[in-house]
């Protein structure tokens, strides 16, 4: 149709502020988007700190030691959807990530950056956006203090870096009296998700990601180091001849390689389970772009059944080119195109197709089912709820072949007289959360707290999970153990 005229239709400021707050990031996705910027700025350290008082979270800071920005560069970075050209190796693309990710979690975004010894700071708030997009310039002297306070290494003057501050966190919070538990769960989930998304950078490039929860009443907060969680880190492949490299051509992007892996049957490592009790949801494609994991599992219309139990061992690593494929806003999934689906169906490794690979993965799982349950006879090891390093070290000691049965830990409500209970259906030792604060003493609750108590309970009870039957005599012994421990807890 012929154009007969034109008019300006700028976005409504108030509507834009509401829209940014409703973009569907979860916390891990939002933080990952900011870490992308840190990596693009050549940072070797990223510190994420949750500031709290006794009742709620008051702020979150994301600090890095990257090259920082000048005042003019910071002004450009604060613009929504800038025209700055990104390098093909950059993880950021459209200039929206920092702002959209931040406003999905907070109502006030401050960025403090230092370069060549000079500090610049700007702030966006909901109100500033509604007031015709008026970004605030902040006092450099006050910004200097905020910059220094975001890092755990006090006394060290950093010459360059950037700090992002989230304030007014009405989307991040816990019910009354449950802040400790909320933070413990949040930290545990972030260790898994960030360790997975950035596992190549952590393992290969020396990137260090630290998580801290810091009280306003304390100058000290013990950092948690995010460990790499490689979804392909098995001791030996499940089938000889794997991993196998398939190749195909994607129009507009050229040749891409797909590395088909088959995990060993009976695997139960953190790298296989990826934070869940079962690995079935983790089958499928693992798409990487510039070494950053974009999508962890899923078949992207290549298969109709996205959770086929017989394909629980099948994972395919795909390194995508910088251009030619699109992701969702959160950079957590690849947007499927007909061209991509067709390219995947054409992938070959010699005379083998992906269909042949999938049949090999199914056959491997079927062969496991025909054998007696390996898991029941496998050595027990501590699972979720115990520090990852302890779990890995115990596994090395007792599970020489890499196959083990994980016994998890959880804090839940139990009858008043019980310190612990056994959940033999789901392989768990459940501790009474009523006594958690007594057992922890002055230590803060976390997803892997009370490691000594949990490890001792594991050693005491591990054989009970492999018993064919639970006798009345054994139940009485468990009852007496609970009674003795309860008396000890009362003295704390």
From TrEMBL:
<dbReference type="InterPro" id="IPR036890">
    <property type="entry name" value="HATPase_C_sf"/>
</dbReference>
<dbReference type="Pfam" id="PF13589">
    <property type="entry name" value="HATPase_c_3"/>
</dbReference>
<protein>
    <recommendedName>
        <fullName>ATP-binding protein</fullName>
    </recommendedName>
</protein>
